[in-house]
Design a protein that fits this description.
The structure is a single chain. The protein is of the alpha/beta class. It has one domain (2-135): Rossmann fold, CATH 3.40.50. Helices cover 53% and strands 18% of the residues. It has helices at 2-8, 19-27, 32-40, 49-61, 64-76, 91-102, 111-119; strands at 14-17, 44-48, 81-83, 105-107, 124-128, 132-135. Helix 2 (19-27) packs across helix 5 (64-76) and helix 4 (49-61) runs antiparallel to helix 5. The longest helix has 13 residues, at 49-61. The chain is globular, with a radius of gyration of 14 Å. The protein starts with a helix and ends with a strand.
Amino acid sequence: MALDRIRRNSTGRIVILDTSAIFMVFEYSVDLEQELTRLLGSFDIIVPAAVVEEIQKLFEYGSGKKKQLAKMSLQFIKRYTSKEIGHGDMVDDLVISAAKELQGIVVTNDKELRKRLKSQRIRQIFLRQKQYLMME
């Protein structure tokens, strides 16, 4: 697949996914890799281990729609690198810390996280009009 080659032969752009970014793939039928390619060209996707743990907890202890999203998300994120990166007590703190550490771009749909990223001048990608991604 061409996108696999692009992702592996990147120019060093690191994209960090949070839980809401992974969920939006299923909630809004967003083709994440295609949209990231449109915005960035080539990239490497990293899913912080804390995000994986958060999704696993939602799968184990959640119910209804959240549990179903978590189940699909766990399968989806297997294709990406998962790393113990960042530091902090909350998952959002870890994502912000990882973005600073790796000079990465965070993909999120979480309003509070987006405000924090903006205040710290960290680049972010978010869902616009429930159909495409936009970078800020």
